[in-house]
Amino acid sequence: MDLSAGSTARSRAISALILGYFAVLVYATIANDPLAAAVAEVGFGVIAIAVGTMLYDGATNWRSAQTVAAVCLVAGGLLAFGSVLTGMAAIDLLSSVLVVLGLGSYIYAVWSAT
Known about the structure:
By secondary structure, the chain is mainly α. The protein has helices at about 10-30, 35-60, 65-85, 90-114.
């Protein structure tokens, strides 16, 4: 199983997105700005989809933990967009649960590959 992150440019872009997400999230929390919070949630979705896509591209078996991680991350990212559009807390919670499951599956994939 190849668990490499892919191209350096793609890894740097995702790293920049993550740093930007945290910067906007900190601002939204400090300023109590609902627009910034919505932008942070959209950023969360974009990051989850980007990382999920990257993991899916690197998956060698469609029944692997890495594929499960990719699907959970992409689904969680899409639900993050749905949460912003609808404002429903249940969709936001499901988005977060799927992203955590995706991260857990990825950690398991890395752990079991070594």
